[in-house]
Amino acid sequence: MSDQVVENKPAAEPAIRTVRVLIQPTPRKIRVRFGGETVAESVKALIVHERGHLPVYYFPREDVRFDLLESTDHSTHCPLKGDASYWTIQAGGRISENAAWSYPEAIPESKGLEGYIAFYWDRVDQWFEEEEEVFVHPRDPYKRVDFLASTRHIRVELDGVTVAESRSPVISFETGQPVRYYLPEADVNSEYLLSSDTVTRCPYKGIAAYHSVQVAGTEHKDLIWRYNEPIAAAKAIEGRLSFYNERVQIYVDGELEVVAKSERSVLDSIRLHIA
Around Cβ 55, how many Cβ atoms within 10 Å? Predict the structure, then answer.
């Protein structure tokens, strides 16, 4: 086995100027549902990037069902946007308190948000981009995910035991994340796998199921995940298994991979730029 080490780390931060809030139109049709009703739907929504936060969709007031909203006394202040007013959603016999907000008199830096309404992602039932359901948060237009078929020799070791080995991985290259290796199920030793009830959601891949791994009597909880029914853009990894690189030893063509921590500042700088 080679003693060489291959490092998996983000590129150096680009030398670009940054802004604190970036407001852009999105060409996608965005839809929000709650209590069996479409609360907002628009082809003129904005996507707003703010340093240190996930992207947020804002809808023109005319594309929001105000018959389903009730204004509240709740308010908050943001130094980058101004004072926010809030609404509670009532639909289908259900209530989601202070689930929507707007900036009726935004500060000059964020004037473009006046006349728009935003919703907390986790206080509504469903989000759609066009007719495809999206989970967790909006898909960031400055983030890229590529799934590439490969013939690299991937060997996964845990506590000195080889638990998977493949020469036909699909490799995921995702902005701001470590490289991930999705292996055919047949190339993962099933004798070490334990079932798990854990389920997570990813806006770029879909709904993930998990396996724990037990080696020499030690259980490693939710070490493996798979997308049995990924979204169309992630079809290449359907049914394949991937390990957390950070919790195992992965050898790529005989060289031990060292996974560096993601540097969110790199993605933030790319996302919040002035052309």
Answer: 20
Dihedral of alpha carbons 233, 237, 243, 245, sign: negative
Tokens 């060409």 found at: 27
Assigned token pair, 198: 């854990």
pLDDT in tens, the chain (275 residues): 444 454 554 444 444 445 688 999 999 999 999 999 999 999 999 999 988 889 999 999 999 999 999 999 999 999 999 999 999 999 999 999 999 999 999 999 899 999 999 999 999 999 999 999 999 999 998 899 999 999 999 999 999 999 999 999 999 999 989 999 999 999 999 999 999 999 999 999 999 999 999 999 999 999 999 999 999 999 999 999 999 999 999 999 999 998 765 444 444 444 444 33
Going along the chain from its start, the domains and CATH numbers come out as 27-134 (2.170.150.40), 143-271 (2.170.150.40)
pTM over 0.70: yes
With 0-12 CB in 10 A as exposed, 13-18 as middle and 19+ as buried, what is 158? buried
